[in-house]
Amino acid sequence: MLEKVSDHIEDLMVCEDAIKRQFEVSEEELDENLQANADPLREKEHEVAPGMINKYPNRALCLLTAECAAYCRFCTRRRLVSDIERGRVDRAHVDQWAAYLESHPAVEEVILSGGDPFIVEDDLFAYALESLCAIDSIRVIRIGTRAPVSDPCLVNCGKLDAIQRVDKPVYVGIHFEHPAEITRRTVCAIRDLRRAGAILYSQSVFLKGVNDDYDTLHELFTRLLEIGVRPYYIYRCDPVPGAMHFIVDPKKERRIMTRLRRGLSGLAFPTYIIDAPDGSGKIPVPLDFWDGDKTHYTDFGGNRHFIE
Q: Is this prediction's pTM over 0.85?
């Protein structure tokens, strides 16, 4: 995966090692691990149209671009991002997505992701939102982004106007990993999204050397709630090639989350999950309040997995 950082991230990297570790290429990425999987969520085999993935009966994922403002070194789509031409989407692709959704009314929710949807041109962003929302069976739109963190200026008037014009709920999921990412410019972008009517939630990933401690996550989740972003998920890092050095000991993760459950309000506490191998579901992880064997779990399909 290519290295790319925005000016905003470059400025943060100067003062904060936790930001630098997320975006700067390291020699650790070269470590080959046989347990790594380039497509751990099995998205490719569920691709029903170019850029469109339908893995669950009631929701579909649409990859509006393969480009980001800055490339996170732990990205689960390392196989795709930074290959701009391969992931390029235009109105014809959006029309294909709409045709598929029209013929599959069981799909009621669409997630626009990438790459980062906020990096595409305003016209394409608006066309995608309007086309998908025009389908009667679609009740909810979600947008996955890191733009308020990686390049807040991407949250511009064109994108905000497009969100405001939509007459269905638009949920914007923003990736946050560390409280140093909550800058003045990021807070302004969050405020603008809220004023446009977007419902905001966050997603985070446990990352060794970045946020694998109680104080960091307590501050992150508390401050997110204070700026109007509901902490939603914190994931166990996916075992993708080049990102294995970010994976935290699962016992340590559980200890941190157990302590956070005691120290945070319910609104500030995200669900701690594992995205099961082979794309078989987002599985909540029990905390240390529960007795029993926590070395394995069962996914949506009834398959058993061991936590490494």
A: yes
**Which residues fall within 8 angstroms of residue 169, CB to CB, at 6 or more apart?**
139, 140, 141, 199
Structure-token match 């990736």, residue found: 175
Annotate 166-177 with DSSP letters as a single string.
Answer: -SS-EEEEEE--
The reply to whether 2 falls in a domain is: no
| Among 54-58, 185-189, 250-254, 263-267, the least confident range | 54-58
Closest CA to 164 of 189, 118, 129: 129
Q: Is 1 within the bounds of a domain?
A: no
Q: Two tokens at 120?
A: 């595409």
Instruction: Please name the amino acid found at residue 242.
Output: G
Whether the CB-CB separation of 178 and 13 falls below 8 Å is answered with: no
Residue 195 is classified by DSSP as H
Q: Give the angle 188-272-247 at the CA atoms, nearest 5°.
A: 90
Inside any domain, residue 169 = yes
The structural domain count of the chain equals 1
Which of 300, 307, 292, 203 has its CA nearest to residue 249?
307
45 pLDDT higher than 80:
no
DSSP conformation letters of 58-124: TEEEEE--S--SS--TT-TTTTTTT-TTTT---HHHHHHHHHHHHT-TT--EEEEESS-GGGS-HHH
Q: What is the average pLDDT across 8-35?
A: 86
User: How do strand 47-49 and strand 140-145 relate by DSSP bridges?
Assistant: unpaired
Structure tokens at 112: 């626009």
Residues making up the chain, counted from first to last: 308
Backbone angles phi, psi at 172, to 5 degrees: -110, 115
Q: ∠ CA(249), CA(253), CA(255), 5° rounding?
A: 115
Q: In CATH, what number is assigned to the domain containing residue 203?
A: 3.20.20.70
Domain that holds residue 185: 7-306
